[in-house]
């Protein structure tokens, strides 16, 4: 006898033992049966309810930077890093020195600035002389205006070169410029060390991010799209904090599928002042969709899956049971919503339903 047949015989024997009494025959018709009264003590039923359906959907997600609160520093000029003042993960304040860069191009600008400043001093002296001679009627007004114009032109050139130099950083002299933090935040990327070469076409030297606000980007597959919409409240969990639930809502749902992941991205903007959520952290995002559509609800434990279909055992009358084929609409935790096959107020078996089901089928 095969193992499978042995199991079937054992199940059948159990059902026959429970459903028979000495000297009596158990009544049985197709798809229904009267069960022995002593066995009913081990049978539990519950009534079906007509309630508003609530669907639950679990999506995967990932924490990302808020792109509006991040700065990638790519140098505007090539050079060599003289010194760095920060490490990966450091908190920095706006205006804090981060690194010094030595550059030949910047050195040329410094030399030009020094030359213009020397010309400015000469032009100022010439203007004072011209003003004095004009006061003594030795210079014409035209000559005085020419002296003033020459000084203004030099000063304009100095202002321009200072503005150009300020784009690269603080002038430290000798071809060295200091780069300061353009915003407060955390160093989340560092690609520079003393002696390293940087260029305008290279990668970002460092990235500063304000992590007090982050985005959780949830992956929405095509099959889930019907149950996801903007404004839905969500609950999120992560392995880093298994006992904590983070609550938020879907702020934006992308209208274009990601070409690589083949998903739509649902954006959840999260306040992160306690810095618990770290970029690249994986999240499980749970959505609960409450609707006004009323459906028959039963405990999920009552369902029997057999031959790619769902069944339940219904007590139609006292001691009179029947197998009912049902169509499942959806589930939420331990509740299953039934699209067809049951009516409100019917008694569904939730304990020992498998034994009764096997007996009614004649396994």
SSE arrangement:
Layout: H1 3-19, E1 28-29, E2 32-34, E3 44-47, E4 49-65, E5 70-73, E6 79-84, E7 91-92, E8 97-102, H2 104-135, H3 141-168, E9 170-173, E10 176-180, E11 185-190, E12 197-198, E13 206-209, E14 213-220, E15 233-238, E16 241-249, E17 252-253, E18 264-271, E19 282-299, E20 304-306, E21 309-317, E22 320-332, E23 335-340, E24 347-351, H4 353-361
- Figure out the total of helices: 4
- Proper CATH architecture of the largest domain: Beta Barrel
Tell me about the largest β-sheet.
15 strands, antiparallel
User: Which percent range describes the beta-strand content?
Assistant: 35-45%
List low-pLDDT spans.
1-33
**CATH top level label of the largest domain:** Mainly Beta
Please explain how this structure is put together.
This protein has 363 residues and is an alpha+beta fold. The protein has four domains: 3-53 and 293-361, conserved putative lor/sdh protein from methanococcus maripaludis s2 fold; 57-68 and 210-291, Elongation Factor Tu (Ef-tu), domain 3 (Beta Barrel); 71-102 and 178-209, RNA polymerase II/Efflux pump adaptor protein, barrel-sandwich hybrid domain (OB fold (Dihydrolipoamide Acetyltransferase, E2P)), CATH 2.40.50.100; 104-174. The chain has four helices and 24 strands. The protein has helices at residues 3-19, 104-135, 141-168, 353-361, and strands at residues 28-29, 32-34, 44-47, 49-65, 70-73, 79-84, 91-92, 97-102, 170-173, 176-180, 185-190, 197-198, 206-209, 213-220, 233-238, 241-249, 252-253, 264-271, 282-299, 304-306, 309-317, 320-332, 335-340, 347-351. The chain has a 15-stranded antiparallel β-sheet that branches. Helix 1 (3-19) crosses helix 4 and helix 2 runs antiparallel to helix 3 (141-168). The model is unreliable at 1-33 (pLDDT under 50).
């Amino acid at each position: 006898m095969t193992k499978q047949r042995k199991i079937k015989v054992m199940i059948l024997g159990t059902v026959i033992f429970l459903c028979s009494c000495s000297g009596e025959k158990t009544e049985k018709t197709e798809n229904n049966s009267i069960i022995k009264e002593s066995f009913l003590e081990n049978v539990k039923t519950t009534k079906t309810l007509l309630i508003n359906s609530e669907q639950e959907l679990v999506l995967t997600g990932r924490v990302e930077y808020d792109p509006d609160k991040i700065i990638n520093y790519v140098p505007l000029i090539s050079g060599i890093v003289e010194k760095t003042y920060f490490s990966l993960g450091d908190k920095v304040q706006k205006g804090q020195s981060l690194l010094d860069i030595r550059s030949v191009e910047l050195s040329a600008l410094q030399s030009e600035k020094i030359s213009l400043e020397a010309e400015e001093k000469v032009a100022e002296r010439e203007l004072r002389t011209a003003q004095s001679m004009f006061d003594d009627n030795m210079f014409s007004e035209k000559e005085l205006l020419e002296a003033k114009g020459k000084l203004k032109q030099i000063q304009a050139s100095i202002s321009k070169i200072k503005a150009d130099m300020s784009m690269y950083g603080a002038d430290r002299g000798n071809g060295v410029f200091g780069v300061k933090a353009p915003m407060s935040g955390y160093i989340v990327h560092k690609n520079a060390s003393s002696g390293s070469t940087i260029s305008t076409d290279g990668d970002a030297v460092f990235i500063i991010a304000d992590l007090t606000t982050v985005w959780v980007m949830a992956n929405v597959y095509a099959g889930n799209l019907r149950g996801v919409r903007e404004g839905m409240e969500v609950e999120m969990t992560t392995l880093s904090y298994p006992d904590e639930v983070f609550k938020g809502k879907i702020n934006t749902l992308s209208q274009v599928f990601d070409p690589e992941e083949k998903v739509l991205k649902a954006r959840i903007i999260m306040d992160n002042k306690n810095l618990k959520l770290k970029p690249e952290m994986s999240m499980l995002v749970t959505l609960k969709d409450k609707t006004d559509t009323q459906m028959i609800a039963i405990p999920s434990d009552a369902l029997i899956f057999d031959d790619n279909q769902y069944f339940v055992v219904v007590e139609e009358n006292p001691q009179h049971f029947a197998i009912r084929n049902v169509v499942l609409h959806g589930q939420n935790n331990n509740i299953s919503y039934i699209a067809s096959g049951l009516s409100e107020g019917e008694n569904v078996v939730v304990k020992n339903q498998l034994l009764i089901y096997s007996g009614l089928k004649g396994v």
